[in-house]
Structure formats: structure tokens, C-alpha cells
Amino acid sequence: MELDRAGQAEAFDAIGDDYDEAFPHKEGQVASAEWLIGSLPAGSRVLDLGCGTGVPTARRLAEAGLQVVGVDLADRMVALARRNVPTGVFHRADIADLRPGGPRDLGRFDAVTAFFALLMLPRAEIPLALRTVHHLLLPHGLFALSMVEADVDDFTIPFIGRTIRVSGYLREELREIVEETGFEIVEETGYSYAPATVDVQPEVQIFLRCRRRA
Fold first, then answer.
1. Which residues are within 8 A (CB) of 198 and not within 5 positions of it... i.e. 6 or more apart?
2. Which pLDDT tens digit goes with each residue over 157-189?
3. The dihedral of CA 113, 52, 28, 84: what is its sign?
4. What is the tens place of the pLDDT at every residue in 14-58?
5. Average pLDDT of the chain?
6. Burial class (CB in 10 A: 0-12, 13-18, 19+), 124
7. What is the DSSP letter of 47?
8. What is the DSSP string of 122-189?
């Protein structure tokens, strides 16, 4: 499959610190991070896909004594994450790079987070990305996922002064895709969220807490 990332990384390079200002309250991410912290032994390896600035997820996981590895497509986000979470290890990489047989091998993990990272992919790639997560996890590893509930595919939207393309699913379809790619959904929560910026519309965020089937 030919990947099209045109403009996606550049938009987030330009957004930089403005992202945390536009999204100041991330209760869903914080709650899911606390679930991982409470479920994992100290020293467990956790991969944060689409780590952004490292705040709050990677920072909180690292503070709790977990070994954090983060990846992001945007150079600026990786630089900010390294500054914000000095004990973490961060790479500029595409999730497609981590697939079985792909060009990057970061090892296996006790848990993976993907908070709105899959939102940036066209729908055709999302099941492949979920299978990659399954590959990266150790048997019975944990997976914390979030998406915006929306019936859209590679849809262009204004975003903090830039333009990005996003995809989403309605709740039941998202659950089906996650389960079909090898995960048991342990818990589901939803949040109505209004970002602190005029060009990002209010949204319904879905958070799934999952376990990899062996």
C-alpha cells in the first residue's frame, strides 16, 4: 500500500507548543495512563504511538517508573517530547515503519498507547496499524486507544491554523475493527470535548482499554 503523509507531519511541526494550549484538558488520556500504571509492574516497557509533545501521557508513565518509548511523525513533536520527558526514548517514525518486517524494530512492549494517532490515517490503513500494535505487544499486553467518533475517511479539516486529514468511525464499527484485529476490549469510556481554539469543533472522544489476545 502506498502511504500518503503529505502535509500531516508539516502541520504538526508548525503547531508545536500550540497543541497543548489548544487541548489543555486531557482527562481521557490521563485516566487511561493511570489504568496502565495500575496494571503494569514497574519497569514495564510502554510504546506511545503519536506521542506528540509527551504531555501528559509519556511524562506520566515515565514518572510512574515505566520505560517509555515514543514515536511521532513530526520532528518538532519528537524534540518537544525529548525535552518534556528526558527519561523517555523518542523516535521520528511512522507506525507503518514498525510493522512486521518493517524498517524499524523497537522490540516488544508490555503496553501500547495510541491516543488519536490512528485518527491521522486513512481508513484503509487503520486495520493494518492495529495489527502492527498486536505484533508489537507481548502476549496479553495492554493497549489503550482513543479516537474521535465520526463517520469520515481521510477528511480534510482546519486544525489550529493548519489543515490536516482525519478518519474516524462510529462507536460500534470501531469496536468491531479493534476486536477483529486481535484485541479484547476490557473497558470503554467516552468524553464530550470542546478544544480551547475556535477552529477545532467540539467532539466525542472514545477511549478503549484493551488486552491483546495471545
1. none
2. 776 677 789 999 999 999 999 999 999 999 999
3. positive
4. 666 666 665 666 889 999 999 999 999 999 999 999 999 999 999
5. 90
6. exposed
7. E
8. -GGGHHHHHHHHHHHEEEEEEEEEEEEB--EEEEEEEETTEEEEEEEB-HHHHHHHHHHTTEEEEEEE
Which grid cell is 182?
Answer: 486481535
Q: Which amino acid is at 150?
A: A
Cell numbers representing residue 97 in the block: 515503519
Cell of residue 210, nine digits? 484493551
Quick check: 65 and 44 in contact, CB under 8 A? no
Cell numbers found for residue 80:
518537544
Three-state secondary structure call for residue 71: strand
